[in-house]
């Protein structure tokens, strides 16, 4: 029960909340004041006085179809705030001794989730990486290989397939000690295994320089106008035969655009923000330089401004 203003009664009246339908109903005339409300309170009440991190009034996580038990198995833990007694410790020891076929998968999924959180990836990419790892693990051919590199490569492929690519260097920064070369080898191995399972080639998407622009520009703290100019310049650069990697082209375009703005960024900062070596940015700048008049938008810089740029 509560008070609310009823537009039919033209006054404040008592209302009743129907939990089953999510409706707020006027007790005087029966008018539904609000429908399909979401009840964000606890699923049930608890009278326990526990100070642990676990909230006893909330339900558990969703089911995981990639696990044999759906991720709903029971885990026996120590009681909060008390020393281990005989019953709980014995049951816990017996459970730990028991073989759990999904133990390696659970640990792998946790590692992928940790890497995804560090990179700020959405849940769909994490789920795709879990599916890729499950397919590789089912073939039982990855034993003896670097598991950290395998997990990182699964995440890299998932980003490519979801059209949210990340550079190998970005993936390497969150991998547990796996190097770029190891992740590259693991990526080729996973693609080969997926092709054997599916009987057809596996598409992981094409990388474009524009896929990295907004994230790289955000790392440098560039203004909206400069970001817009960089995005347009990258799109126009695809019309020319510039034989450089998309990441190198993106870094070179960012460097050029910032040199034409009031807030010039040094080459070292651009290299740190993009993960591209300074020498590679210089070489890409050299390849882009003859086409700058057609790449840089006219509303952002004139021909005179381009002539003031230092030659590569």
Automatic annotation (TrEMBL):
Compartment list: Nucleus
GO BP term, pick one: transcription preinitiation complex assembly
Keywords: Metal-binding, Nucleus, Repeat, Transcription, Transcription regulation, Zinc, Zinc-finger
Gene3D superfamilies cross-referenced by the UniProt entry: 1.10.472.170, Cyclin-like
Family annotation (SMART domains): CYCLIN
Signal peptide region: none
GO molecular function, a single term: zinc ion binding
Listed GO CC annotations: nucleus; transcription preinitiation complex
Family: Belongs to the TFIIB family.
Name the UniProt record assigns to this protein: Transcription initiation factor IIB-2
